[in-house]
Each structure stands twice: as C-alpha cells, then as structure tokens.
C-alpha cells in the first residue's frame, strides 16, 4: 500500500523558534514558510507551515496552529504545548485504493483537506493510528503537476 516516505510533521507553538533551532543548532535547512487558511486550503482553520527537504524523497514539516479550530491545536494542547511528532505522510501509488484499505481497517478519518498549489491542489487524508503507531498517518493525492506556491519566507 505504501510506496515511500514523504515527511514527518512536528507541531509547535512557535514556528519561528522551531525553524531557527533546526537550522541554527542542527544545520537543517533551508526552510520555506507559508501561511495556510481557508483562502488557500479546504479547512476552517489557520496555520503556519515550514518545509525542509532532507533529501529528494524525505522532508520535515513544522506546523504552528494559529487558532484553536485545528487538529494541530488540539494535539498541541494534549501535549501541554510541547513540540511533538504529529503525523507521518507516506506516498501511495493509488490514493483511492489506499484510502479505502485504511478505512477498511477500521481507522477513523481525522480530517480531509485540499491544499492549493500553483496550478492544482493536493488532497490529504489523516487517519487515527495513534493506538497502533503512536502518531497520525497521512496519505495524499497530488497531481503530477502539483507544485507548492512561492514561500512567504525562506530561512536562512
């Protein structure tokens, strides 16, 4: 079902501090930063996102919730505000088949969202796998031409 690894997501209460720590202390970067909200994704919450490519096939994603409406904010509250691994995203060859198989395992869908790119959107589904795996599981359906928009900021 899984065809590869895409990223690990860490939720943080302070994206700027987290990016500086990863970059300045551990030498991981550069980081591209965006703000996501209902104007550029199909969810009713807002967040700041930072992505860093570790290799051509593996990334780190940092997310800072900007309101209390997101599953990221709820996760941060459950962890007493501490940075923590929220989800892992795996690549799938057939999104509809993988989604169906995961639902067939009895996994709850935490949320579905579409994120706007330059010319297309990426659809992501998060599954509740904390009891089995210790984190949420994400799969996504990205068209071949999907590209992230230009970042608002690059650090360093």
Structure, explained:
The chain is α+β, with helices and mostly antiparallel strands and 156 residues long. The protein has one domain: Roll (2,3-Dihydroxybiphenyl 1,2-Dioxygenase, domain 1), CATH 3.10.180. 21% of the residues lie in helices and 42% in strands. It has helices spanning 15-25, 71-78, 95-104, 130-133; strands at 2-11, 31-36, 47-55, 58-65, 84-92, 109-116, 121-127, 136-141, 153-155. A nine-stranded mixed beta sheet has the order 6-7-8-5-1-4-3-2-9. The protein is globular and about 45 Å long. The protein starts with a strand and ends with a strand. 26% of the residues are buried.
In short:
The protein is an alpha+beta fold. It is built from four helices and nine strands, in the order E-H-E-E-E-H-E-H-E-E-H-E-E.
Provide key terms for this protein:
globular, 9 strands, alpha+beta, 2,3-Dihydroxybiphenyl 1,2-Dioxygenase, domain 1, 156 residues
Q: What is the percent of helical residues? A: 10-25%
Number of helices: 4
- Can you tell me the CATH architecture? Roll
**What characteristic shape results from the CA principal axes?**
globular
Strand content: 35-45%
Count of beta strands: 9
The ordered H/E elements are EHEEEHEHEEHEE
CATH class: Alpha Beta
Task: List the domain count as a whole number.
Answer: 1
* Rg over C-alpha atoms, rounded to the nearest angstrom: 15 Å
CATH topology: 2,3-Dihydroxybiphenyl 1,2-Dioxygenase, domain 1
C-alpha end-to-end distance: 37 Å
Largest sheet: 9 strands, mixed
User: From the helix content, strand content and strand pairing, which structural class follows?
Assistant: alpha+beta
Walk across the major sheet and give the strand order: 6-7-8-5-1-4-3-2-9
Mean pLDDT: 96
Poorly predicted runs: none
The CATH superfamily turns out to be: 2,3-Dihydroxybiphenyl 1,2-Dioxygenase, domain 1
């Amino acid at each position: 079902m899984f065809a590869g690894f895409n990223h690990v997501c860490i939720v943080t209460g302070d994206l700027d501090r987290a990016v500086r720590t990863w970059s300045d202390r551990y030498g991981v970067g550069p980081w591209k930063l965006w703000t996501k909200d209902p104007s550029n994704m199909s969810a009713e919450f807002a967040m700041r996102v930072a992505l860093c490519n570790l290799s051509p096939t593996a990334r780190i994603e940092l997310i800072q919730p900007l309101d209390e409406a997101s599953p990221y904010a709820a996760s941060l509250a459950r962890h007493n505000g501490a940075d923590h691994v929220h989800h892992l995203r795996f690549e799938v060859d057939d999104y509809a088949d993988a989604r169906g198989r995961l639902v067939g395992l009895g996994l709850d869908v935490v949320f579905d969202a579409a994120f706007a790119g330059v010319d297309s959107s990426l659809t992501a589904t998060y599954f509740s796998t904390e009891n089995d795996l210790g984190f949420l599981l994400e799969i996504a359906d990205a068209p071949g031409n999907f590209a992230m928009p230009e970042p608002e900021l690059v650090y360093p």
